[in-house]
Amino acid sequence: MGGRVWGVVARVALVCAAWAAVVAVEVGGVWVARVVMASEAGLVRGAAYLTAAIVTAMVVAGEWAPRRPKRTVAGLAVAAVVAAAVVAVDWTAASVRGYYRVHRADFAAVVAVAAGGGLIPDSYYGELLPPELRHLSIKGSVARIGGSGLLLPARTTTPDGVGGFAFLGDAPPAGTYDCYGSQFRTRWSLGDGWYWLQDTMIPSTT
């Protein structure tokens, strides 16, 4: 009896661990885009979800039977709730805000360098940042946006679309901004005049 209980606990823990890995990939989304090529960031995210879904399906298929004791059903219910909760949450906000907080000083440095005339990001693809600040942009560059704003592209893959950190200062955000031929909107204010911009084609849930 005790062995069966611990077996259920172990399988539920396996499901929870698989979905915890998904959370780690989601929360670290901006970091993931820095480590792998931009075109592969979506594959990493997709692989995490696929693995978690397969693990969950295998556990449910292995445990489900008409005569299973109630504790088994309860364990499966816990696993299902964990999976549903992870899928329901918009993790982009946590990833974006977390990255900004960790690198807040570097974002401030970009503004200072631009204000001092050290950057003239007026070309279509912008200008390369100083080496120590290039990690803030997927392209290692900063572009002009909205006349006087600054854009640091952070994502270039689906399903999140092209998005990035934009410094707009004290000016009220415009309805949309033209970025690399696409229309963007501000989604979140991050503080200090910085915002997260996202393609208007991507639904906003918050």
Task: Walk me through this protein's architecture.
The chain crosses the membrane at residues 12-37, 43-61, 73-94. This is Energy-converting hydrogenase Eha subunit A. Keywords: Membrane, Transmembrane, Transmembrane helix. The chain is an alpha+beta fold and 206 residues long. It has two domains: 2-89; 95-199, no CATH class. It contains six helices and seven strands. Strands 1-2-3-4-7-6-5 form a seven-stranded antiparallel beta sheet. β6 (182-191) and β7 (194-199) form a beta hairpin. α1 (2-27) packs antiparallel against α3 (38-63), α1 runs parallel beside α4 and α2 crosses α3. It is elongated.
Features:
alpha+beta, 206 residues, 7 strands, transmembrane helix, seven-stranded antiparallel sheet, Energy-converting hydrogenase Eha subunit A, transmembrane, elongated
Annotation field: number of helices: 6
Quick one: how many beta strands? 7
The major sheet is characterized as: 7 strands, antiparallel
Query: What is the total number of structural domains?
Result: 2
Strand content: 15-25%
Low-confidence stretches: none
Task: Write out the strand line-up for the largest beta sheet, numbering strands in chain order.
Answer: 1-2-3-4-7-6-5
How would you classify the helix and strand content by structural class?
A: alpha+beta
